[in-house]
Amino acid sequence: MANPSRFLLAGVMGWPISQSRSPMLHNYWFEKHGLAGTYVPLAIEPSGLRAALRALPALLFSGCNLTIPHKQEAFKIVDEVDITAKKIGAISCVIVRPDGSLSGTNNDWYGFVHNIPDFAPDWKADLGPAAVMGAGGGARAVVYGLLERGAREIRLCNRTHARAKTLAAEFGGPIKVFPWEERHNVIDGCAMLANATNQGMIGQNALDLRLDKLPKQALVCDIIYNPRETPLIEAAKRRGHRTVTGLGMLLHQGIPAWKAWFGIAPEVTPDLRARIEATL
Q1: Are 13 and 67 in contact (CB under 8 A)?
Q2: What is the predicted pLDDT for the residue at 6?
Q3: What would the DSSP string read from start to end of the chain?
Q4: Same fold, 8-106+253-277 and 109-245
Q5: Residue 4: per-residue pLDDT
Q6: 71 tagged catalytic
Q7: Residue 178, beta-bridge partner list
């Protein structure tokens, strides 16, 4: 449980960081739980990451989140990395332990799988094949989450084929890798499609993917939350698909972070979602 006798501190490190909605999320929870504390954006250049992380204990931070481009480099800095972060290959959350040492984990997969029931309460990972576009850090979290939930077949497509093959080899299990040129056909017969690339994000081109072979009952997910609805989500809605936007992935991944930092399990409420959506 959080210590009410001291001001609580946490934050998010990234470069740049002004686009992050994490401070709004976590400060909402501070207010809801009546805690004296704050969550701050920390603009940390890559060259300064080691010094910034190592300063957390002296500054009495309970921990921090990490975003682009720090999730991989943090492996070399923290004192311990749990099995989840090792498997995903990235750290999204750092915990300052009582002795001042730093522990790293990854909560992105948790955010992904716990966001889906908000939109599709009956969803199960073993309903049929899942197509995942991408092979970067976001895709690794998505694949990990699907495997944790019992997916029986994951079809992986990435513009760099070798990167997708590396992901599949490291994870093992029911992952099939396909060339990017076959992406339009890979979704045939799938129960889920997940975009884990940056395509569709503000400032990026839309994901180049035709949906005509995707079964109408398939669920379409995007891990991007800005814009609130990507071109992929808009196209899927026009076809009648149930869709899952990316904001909830951000919201839900904060829950295990708060458990680790403060001993509290906050809730993702409609009011919280609406407040952050209003800024997108």
Answers
A1: yes
A2: 85
A3: ---TTS-EEEEEEESS-TT--HHHHHHHHHHHTT-SEEEEEEE--GGGHHHHHHHTTTTT--EEEE-TT-TTGGGGTSSEE-HHHHHHT---EEEE-TTS-EEEE--HHHHHHHHHHHH-TT--TTSS-EEEE--SHHHHHHHHHHHHTT-S-EEEEESSHHHHHHHHHHH-SSEEEEEGGGHHHHTTT-SEEEE-SSTTSTTSPPP----TTS-TT-EEEE---SSSS-HHHHHHHHTT-EEE-SHHHHHHHHHHHHHHHHS------HHHHHHHHTT-
A4: yes
A5: 61
A6: yes
A7: 157
CATH architecture of 8-106+253-277: 3-Layer(aba) Sandwich (3.40)
Domain boundaries, the chain: 8-106+253-277, 109-245
Q: What is the pLDDT of residue 2?
A: 58
Question: Which residues of the chain have a pLDDT value below 50?
Answer: none
Distance CA 95, CA 102 (A): 6
Bond into 227 cis (ω within 30)? yes
User: pLDDT of 45-58, one tens digit each?
Assistant: 999 999 999 999 99
123 CB neighbour count, 10 Å cutoff:
18
What's the pLDDT tens digit per position in 153-182?
Answer: 999 999 999 999 999 999 999 999 999 999
pLDDT of residue 1: 54
What percentage of residues in the chain have a pLDDT greater than 70?
A: 99
Which residue among 32, 71, 216, 237 is the active-site one? 71
Q: Which CATH superfamily is domain 109-245 in?
A: NAD(P)-binding Rossmann-like Domain (3.40.50.720)
Cα 128–Cα 138–Cα 113 angle in degrees, nearest 5: 45
- pTM to 2 decimals? 0.94
